[in-house]
From TrEMBL:
One GO-annotated biological process of the protein: base-excision repair
Main location: mitochondrion
Protein name: Adenine DNA glycosylase
Pfam families: HhH-GPD, NUDIX_4
Recorded GO CC terms: mitochondrion; nucleus
InterPro entries assigned: DNA_glycosylase (IPR011257), Endonuclease-III-like_CS2 (IPR004036), Endonuclease3_FeS-loop_motif (IPR003651), HhH-GPD_domain (IPR003265), HhH_base_excis_C (IPR023170), MIG/MutY (IPR044298), MutY_C (IPR029119), NUDIX_hydrolase-like_dom_sf (IPR015797)
Cofactor binding summary note: Binds 1 [4Fe-4S] cluster.
Gene3D superfamilies according to UniProt: Helix-hairpin-Helix base-excision DNA repair enzymes (C-terminal) (1.10.1670.10), Hypothetical protein, domain 2 (1.10.340.30), Nucleoside Triphosphate Pyrophosphohydrolase (3.90.79.10)
Length: 414
């Protein structure tokens, strides 16, 4: 059986917990950022509408910076102010509004869940974190906890990247913070700490602390409202614990939350010794040939052919220029040939490889793929009849292209 965590890693003193809650909430009331979803959640009297507003913001904020999300969130809530309105939208509309925000499956799952609430749950959001997570697609443990605590007042904790960083520094947790065992302990701590009378505010305060003060690099320890509770700061100020641990300190080895013996405390890093993460897996490299087919429309404007991607997988349902994955090490002459063969299906006529004009390469980094697009262009004369048996396709002007559900990568290509 794994060794139990020593008491010094836990929050067990009721007086300390109460003091930490009070200090953190007082700081949040004074220093919190003015964000549109907070304003809406604070002023909307209907709990289900609050929950929808929080839900949309939390899904958008996954893997995306606050500054990027604000404009998308405001446009979304203006277009679909209620869950019922979203349920009636088309996936194409959702993808168009989401375009550029990345991780496109988030928008798709959000709409699927909205439709489920309307069709199967009588339009009523589940109110407990456990039910939110179980019943709504795309709602994980963190999102469920955020919705339940902020919108419905359930005294349940949340653990996201910011909370992980804060808790690991507060309690000197140096084991791999992405491991399931450590994550479970952090959830236990979050649930023990959450303020029972203001759970939503407390959870937002903890996340706000990680986002604005207890940041990954160069944290503002002097401004931290809970610095007197921070063991990492204490260790930075007073050095390593005594060689002989007291009854609440870790024993020698075997602690599931301490840093591994091979990674000792680095005094130059101070509190940023924590949290520690496993080495990040490098994204795989991929190359794709893509061709911008051009024609003159009936009014003389330049038009481009775009085609829709499959409904599952990377960038599901988005529109792109006709593209083809390339085998590694393929020579440029061979690239032209395979792309020309691929384009023949779209143009309905043979395409000469020599007629493809190489424009250059575009690099786009997805979370797990280092993608290089080898970009060609091909002007077409006369009309092109699109085969309805193929994937959906259409001709668009540049203005229509930017209004369509296209990825940031395709905008780079154009």
């Amino acid at each position: 059986a794994p060794a139990p965590p020593p008491a010094r890693h836990l929050f067990s003193d009721p007086a300390e917990i109460e003091a930490l809650r009070g200090n953190l909430l007082a700081w949040y009331d004074k220093c919190k950022r003015d964000l549109p979803w907070r304003t809406l959640a604070a002023t909307e009297p209907d709990a289900d509408r609050r929950a929808y507003a929080v839900w949309v913001s939390e899904i958008m904020l996954q893997q995306t910076q606050v500054a990027t999300v604000i404009d998308y969130y405001n446009r979304w809530m203006q277009k679909w102010p209620t869950l019922q309105a979203l349920a009636q939208a088309s996936l194409e509309e959702v993808n168009e509004l989401w375009a550029g925000l990345g991780y496109y499956s988030r928008g798709k799952r959000l709409q699927e869940a909205a439709r489920k609430v309307v069709s199967e749950l009588d339009g009523r959001m589940p109110r407990m974190a456990e039910d939110l997570q179980k019943l709504l697609p795309g709602v994980g443990r963190y999102t469920a906890g955020a919705i339940a605590s902020i919108s419905y007042g359930q005294a349940t904790g949340v653990v996201d990247g910011n909370v992980i960083r804060v808790l690991c520094r507060l309690r000197c947790i140096g084991a791999d913070s992405s491991s399931p065992a450590v994550i479970d302990r952090l959830w236990d701590m979050a649930n023990a700490l959450v303020d029972r009378s203001r759970p939503g505010d407390f959870n937002q305060a903890l996340m706000e602390l990680g986002a604005t003060v207890c940041v990954p690099k160069a944290p503002l320890c002097g401004e931290c409202p809970v610095k007197q509770h921070c063991q990492a700061r204490r260790r930075k100020l007073f050095g390593k614990p005594a060689p002989v641990p007291d009854v609440e300190d870790c024993g020698v080895g075997g602690c599931p939350l301490c840093p591994p013996a091979t990674e000792p405390w680095d005094s130059s890093l101070g509190v940023t010794n924590f949290p520690r993460k496993a080495a990040k897996k490098q994204p795989r490299a991929a190359r794709t040939a893509t061709c911008v087919l051009e024609r003159r429309g009936c009014h003389g404007a330049l038009e481009y052919l775009i085609v829709q991607r499959p409904s599952s997988g990377l960038l599901a349902g988005l529109w792109e220029f006709p593209s083809l994955p390339l085998a590694q090490g393929l020579q440029e002459e061979k690239q032209r040939e395979v792309l020309a063969d691929h384009l023949q299906a779209w143009t309905g006529r043979p395409v000469a490889a020599g007629g493809l004009r190489l424009i250059g390469e575009v690099v786009h980094i997805f979370s797990h793929i280092h993608q290089t697009y080898v970009v060609y262009s091909l002007p077409l004369d006369g009309d092109v009849i699109l085969d309805p048996a193929l994937s959906p396709s259409r001709w668009v002007t540049e203005e229509e292209f930017h209004a369509s559900a296209v990825s940031t990568a395709m905008k780079k290509v154009l």
